[in-house]
Amino acid sequence: MVERREIITEARRWIGTPWRHQGRSRSGVDCVGLVVLVARALGLEPEDVAGYARRRDGRALLRHLHNQLQSQSLTNWKIGYIGVFKESAFPIHVGFLSARDGVPTVIHAHARRRQVIEEALVPYGAPFAVFSFPEVL
Length: 137
Prior knowledge:
It is a single chain. The chain contains 4 helices and 8 strands. By secondary structure, it is of the alpha+beta class. The strands form 2 sheets. A 6-stranded antiparallel beta sheet has the order 3-8-4-5-6-7.
């Protein structure tokens, strides 16, 4: 079993990695790639997806997450859970929910900032949905 704090430790190792659409390496990742690679580094084997458009309506992403992960509470989430965020009214972005010095944060591959970052959650926005890996304590 993997502990949630291990997920955050691994996700933070990716901070500063360049953003690249459909990237799956240290030379560049997107938000889905970050989740997949962090999970794989910890011995989890999520099914990856490929060939997706940068902008879409989000239904396929949500179906994929519901098929692989466990849905969690929007209000009582824990560090290491995966938040799904809306952009332009569509749920199309994911990141790891965390905290620093008691402040809720999100670790994610941010397209406009061109890299993996950790930022305060409140200014970024609340997640639309929250999931966890089934194998995580």
